[in-house]
Specification:
GO terms for molecular function: ATP binding. Keywords: Antibiotic resistance, ATP-binding, Nucleotide-binding, Transport. Pfam families: ABC_tran. This is ABC transporter ATP-binding protein. By secondary structure, the protein is of the alpha/beta class. The chain has ten helices and 13 strands. The protein has helices at residues 57-64, 86-90, 109-119, 124-137, 153-165, 183-200, 211-217, 235-240, 288-297, 310-321, and strands at residues 4-20, 26-42, 46-50, 72-77, 93-97, 171-175, 203-207, 220-225, 228-234, 248-255, 268-273, 276-282, 300-306. The protein is globular, with a radius of gyration of 24 Å. The structure holds adenosine-5'-triphosphate.
Length: 322
């Protein structure tokens, strides 16, 4: 067991929303965005925090960074109560939001970094070393003189990640760090994060809708839904966690020509695109009889079997809860 860096116990966040319930009457309604969550993250872990829209991910991150105060429960980051000592915590953490930048829009990248240096009172030598490292590893050399508004999304994201790391944070929160990035930029960002974690031992909590981020970066994943923790463990275990029992494999069939949906016992057509059809069947069933039935009954060119992917397993996990 390592050193516990992040600690949540019975954490809740309830929002009160007012809405019109007639011409004059207003109704108060309570939204339980986070509904009793507990977990710990050790120093040096890289954890994926995933769930569908509105699950409570951002609310959790906001409580961890001290932007929001929990309605109930206990929360500590590096021994600090975030909401009470937000400024002290700020020196220990970095935050990157994929959707918006913390950089100054009109300033060249390096001027933004200079402002960060003063804001966090980073000692000169340390600042230089960290900047140099980020510039090299994130390929920012050519971009330092460019105003942030002229950067592409991928460049801007790399610039933002560097900005979050200049003060050597213990923990880095990343909210959708690869959203909207092209394949090459995604790969660069992921490679950098892996390196950062391996070399400096920075703890990373990552929110994403891109399961490749999780597959390539996180040994542990937490799934949250309706404000509750539904799963906490290795990514591989998600397949086995209840949901996998009902999961399906897919037979992808290429026919000689377009046909109405095939009728094959034990499978159902879930998608048709021209002469290609997708047939779902229970994951634990053998594909052989299906293949035989398709080959016997239809003009078949080619076929392949797809294993259930994580996205599908997770989608089922959510669907199963209703
Ligand atoms: N300030 C607020 N006032 C009222 N309700 C809020 C507030 N912030 C969040 N909520 C509600 O709390 C729930 C959880 O929202 P949250 O943003 O944490 O979800 P999320 O998992 O981050 O979703 P997404 O993936 O869409 O960002 C939602 O129902 C949302 O509408």
């Amino acid at each position: 067991m390592g050193e516990v860096l992040i600690e949540l116990d019975g954490v809740e966040k309830v929002f009160t929303v007012r809405r019109r319930a007639g011409l004059v009457r207003r109704e108060k309604r309570q939204v339980r965005a986070v509904d009793g969550i507990g977990f710990t993250v050790d120093r040096g872990e890289m954890v994926g925090y995933i769930g569908p829209n509105g699950a409570g991910k951002s609310t959790t991150i906001k409580m961890l960074t001290g932007i929001l105060t929990p309605s109930a429960g206990r929360l500590r980051v590096a021994g600090i109560d975030p909401a009470r000592e937000r400024m002290r915590l700020a020196h220990r953490m970095g935050v990157v939001f994929g959707q918006r930048t913390t950089l100054w829009w009109d300033l060249p990248l390096k001027d933004s970094y200079g402002l960060m240096r003063r804001m966090y009172r980073i000692p000169e030598a340390r600042y230089r070393a960290n900047l140099e490292r980020c510039v090299e590893r994130l390929d920012l050399g050519e971009l330092l003189e460019v105003p942030v508004r002229q950067l592409s999304l991928g460049q801007r994201m790399r610039g933002d990640i560097a900005a979050a790391l200049l003060h050597d944070p213990d923990v880095l929160y990343l909210d959708e760090p690869t959203i909207g990035l092209d394949v090459v930029s995604k790969a660069k960002v992921r490679a950098f994060l892996r390196q950062l974690n391996a070399e400096l031992g920075t703890t990373v909590l990552l929110t994403t809708h891109d399961l490749q981020d999780i597959e390539q970066l996180c040994e542990r994943v937490m799934v949250i839904d309706h404000g509750r923790l539904m799963y906490d463990g290795p990514l591989g275990g998600l397949h086995a966690s209840g949901a996998a029992g009902q999961s399906e494999r897919t037979l992808v069939v290429d026919l000689e020509r377009e046909l109405p949906p095939l009728e094959v016992a034990g499978a159902r057509v879930v998608r048709v695109e021209g002469a290609r059809q997708w047939l779902a069947f229970p994951a634990q069933a053998s594909a052989a009889p299906l293949v035989a039935a398709v080959a016997a009954g239809y003009p078949l060119l080619d076929l392949s079997v797809r294993e259930p992917d994580i996205e599908e397993v997770i989608a089922r996990m959510y669907a199963g809860r209703g």
